[in-house]
Amino acid sequence: MITDRDKVFLQMALEEAEMALQQNTYPVGAILVDDQYNVIAKGRNRVHTAKDATAHAEIDAIRNAGEAIFDAKIHNKAFTLYSSLEPCPMCTGGILFAKIQRVVWLLNDDMGFGGYQKMKDSAIFNTKFNRIEAIAEPDVELKNRQLELMRQWEQNSNHIQHLRSAGSVNV
């Protein structure tokens, strides 16, 4: 179940995704929030802008949290990560090892690199996954806005299919 407050943070994640698309990179945004509903960090996909394959939105938010993420991990504080897209395996690993306790995303990515649900289903990190509340696709309107960003991304010159057909070596 999501709250109106959750919807505000999901909207913020979507705004980060829109900025990523404007910067010609994959449209994913993330917001990290503490248990008092303070925004600790924001992140967006920067793969193309930073020329860094690990510069995903969720990782960007975790990195941007700096010392706050260590304090939360050590003192078992409840952080929530809001993402506009289901976290990939790398981002899921970041979530698990940062001990984030709640994850909410707008759009499942089972046809792409979405890995949160697949990793959870594999039961390899049961202990870590069992302490996380995960909420997928809680808002149809915001989910549809993320879907539209994904459709726009398919037309972007930095989309992998366009880069491959152009014979780019920067992929």
Brief digest:
The protein is an alpha/beta fold and 171 residues long.
Strand share of the residues?
Answer: 5-15%
Strand arrangement in the largest pleated sheet: 2-1-3-4-5
Model regions low in confidence, pLDDT < 50 over at least 5 residues: none
Determine Rg (CA atoms, Å): 15 Å
Tally of individual helices: 9
N-to-C SSE string, H for helix and E for strand? HEEHHHEHEHHEHH
Average pLDDT for all residues: 87
CA distance, first residue to last residue: 39 Å
| Overall geometric form | globular
Structural class: alpha/beta
Give the SSE map:
Blueprint: H1 4-22, E1 29-33, E2 39-44, H2 47-50, H3 57-65, H4 67-74, E3 80-83, H5 89-97, E4 102-105, H6 116-122, H7 126-129, E5 133-136, H8 140-155, H9 160-165
Parallel strand pairs: 3-4, 4-5
Antiparallel strand pairs: 1-2, 1-3
Helix pairs in contact: 1-8, 3-5
What would your notes on this structure say?
This is Nucleoside deaminase. InterPro entries: APOBEC/CMP_deaminase_Zn-bd, CMP_dCMP_dom, Cytidine_deaminase-like. It comes from Sporosarcina saromensis. Residues 4-116 form the CMP/dCMP-type deaminase domain. The protein is built from 9 helices and 5 strands; from the N terminus they run αββαααβαβααβαα. The protein is of the alpha/beta class and 171 residues long. Strands 2-1-3-4-5 form a 5-stranded mixed sheet. Helix 3 runs parallel beside helix 5 (89-97). The N and C termini lie far apart (39 Å). The model has no long low-confidence stretch (mean pLDDT 87).
